[in-house]
C-alpha cells in the first residue's frame, strides 16, 4: 500500500469523525456554547484544562486569534505536555489523587466561573477529581471526552466514576478506544491518532456558538485578533485592558 493511500485513509477517518460530531453532538455543542456566553455575560471567568495530549485542545483556546480572550489555561505542573522529563511522569501524575483539588484551590477560579475539561479517556483521577472539585466550588463544567472509554475501561478514580459523570454538559468526541484510526497487516500496532483534530474542532465550534450567542444579545464577544495582521496588537491591548480582571495569562 502506498503512503499516499494511507494518508488518504486517515483524512477519510478524520472527516468521518468530524461529520459524526457535527451531526450527533449538535445539541451539546449548542448547550456548551450558550453556557460560555452566559458566563461571559454574567461577569464570570473561563478556564480550560487538559492533561498530556488532551492539553493540546485546551491550549488551542487560550490566547488564540479568533477565540475569546477570557479563556485561561488551568495548568497542572508536569501534566500539561510532553516537556516534562521523563515524559511518562506526566502520565503518572494523571493518576495521583488530591492533585486536582490542590491546583483548583491555588487558582483564581471561583463560583460562577466555567471550566472546560478535556480528557480523551476520562478515566484518570486528575480529570475526574478536577470536575468533582470544580462543581463543588460552584463552577460550571464542560467535559470533552470519548464516552466509549467508560464502557470498555476501568476508572482509575477511587469513586469508580469517569469525567462524563461530573459535568454539566458532555461533548463526546466519538474517538475509538486506543485513539488510532488505521491498521495494516505489516504493522503490529494501530496508528494515526485523530483525537486532537476532532477535539479541537469541537471546541472551536463551541467558541463559535458562544460568540454568536453573545452577538445575538447585543454583547460584543471579547475576541482576540492575530498579532500578525496590522492593528492586531492594538486591538488585543484594548481587550486586555477592558477585561483585565478576568484574564490571568496577560500580566
From TrEMBL:
One of its GO terms (biological process) is carbohydrate derivative metabolic process. Gene3D superfamilies: Glucose-6-phosphate isomerase like protein, domain 1 (3.40.50.10490). GO terms for molecular function: carbohydrate derivative binding. Belongs to the UPF0309 family. InterPro entries: RpiR-like_SIS (IPR035472), SIS_dom (IPR001347), SIS_dom_sf (IPR046348), SIS_GmhA/DiaA_subfam (IPR050099), UPF0309 (IPR022951). Residues 36-219 form the SIS domain. This is UPF0309 protein GCM10017557_36680. It holds the Pfam family SIS_2.
